[in-house]
Specification:
The protein is mainly beta. It contains three helices and 13 strands; from the N terminus they run E-E-E-E-E-E-H-E-E-E-E-E-E-H-H-E. 13% of the residues lie in helices and 36% in strands.
Length: 216
């Protein structure tokens, strides 16, 4: 991981944040198989292509006990305070945000696994491993009860008229402070890869404030 990038975890709409004091040597992004194997009587095993599986992000680093030149900033957190913050987020069972500055990597995730240890010869420094999983926000339709002709009660989707979106999507967009390809893609309901391809952007996909980019 290049030193000019910052790796962050945040929760509760950015009210709680933690920048990793030492960037991990690598980030591993993985996506499981989309295929399920089910056994159907008379047919045997049958492959079924399921919906796109959730991506996982794995990384390992450390919370050093004292500042060293390899740290990304001076006022590093106490190792046990940093560990306690991550453990609290996990215990609350809430999605958090993982993002790396100057990259399109900005994801809502859940903490699937978090382990840490203290090694001999480096008192109070805590080594840790973290496994995150992409989180999908789900909109739940409201239900209301109604009685049938037989007197029983059933739940039905709440009626209402959905207003069509008549707003014309602009074909270009001017980058503002805090923007990333992922954030812009979410705003205009597309993918960051599509925007990168249209604008012929290459890694690390850096954006400049005021830069005008094309939209699909």
């Amino acid at each position: 991981m290049k030193a000019n990038k910052q790796v962050w975890l945040s929760a509760k709409n950015g009210k709680e944040k933690l920048q990793l004091p030492v960037n991990p040597e690598q980030l591993e992004f993985s996506t499981g198989s989309q295929t399920k194997i089910v056994n159907v009587q008379g047919l045997g095993d049958v492959s079924i292509i399921d919906s796109e599986p959730l991506m996982t992000i794995s990384l390992s680093s450390q919370f050093p006990s004292v500042y060293s030149p390899f740290c990304e900033y001076v006022n590093i957190p106490a190792p046990r305070d940093a560990v306690a913050k991550i453990q609290a987020w996990r215990a609350q069972k809430i999605p958090i945000r993982f993002f790396v500055t100057k990259t399109p990597w900005n994801f809502a995730v859940t903490i699937e696994d978090f382990t840490y240890r203290e090694e001999g010869g480096d008192v109070d420094t805590l080594m840790f491993s973290l496994r995150l999983q992409l989180y999908r926000f789900v909109t739940v339709r409201k239900m209301e009860k109604s009685k049938t002709t037989t007197g029983t009660t059933k739940a039905v989707a709440k009626k209402g008229t959905v207003r069509p979106n008549t707003k014309v999507q602009p074909k270009t967009y001017k980058v503002v402070k805090g923007d990333s390809l992922w954030r812009i893609a979410q705003k205009f309901k597309t993918t960051w890869q599509t925007i990168a391809d249209i604008n012929k952007l290459k890694a690390p996909y850096s954006l400049q404030v005021g830069q005008v980019i094309k939209l699909p």
